[in-house]
Specification:
Helices cover about 70% and strands about 0% of the residues. It has helices spanning about 5-20, 25-65. The model has no long low-confidence stretch (mean pLDDT about 80).
Length: about 80
């Protein structure tokens, strides 16, 4: 997109106007805005989920190190015999 100038963008806007018509453009813009909001919300939720997962992992690792066991990264339970 390094070669786009103001004239290129103007031509693109005119082509979009011809394809969709002036009456449908506000609905198209509203739909795109809603989609962008949903996408941003999902990205924020994923980041929050990753942060909470990282906090849970660090809690498990600190608890395991206090007990003298190494933290498991493969998702399995540690092998702690109770004898």
């Amino acid at each position: 997109m390094a070669g786009l100038t103001g004239w290129h963008l103007l031509v693109l806007v005119l082509i979009i106007l011809l394809l969709f018509g002036a009456a449908k453009l506000p609905a198209l813009a509203k739909s795109m805005g809603q989609s962008a909001r949903v996408f941003k919300g999902e990205m924020k939720a994923m980041k929050d989920d990753d942060a909470s997962q990282a906090a849970a992992d660090s809690t498990v690792a600190s608890t395991a190190s206090e007990n003298g066991a190494s933290p498991r990264t493969d998702g399995s339970a540690p092998n702690n015999p109770t004898s």
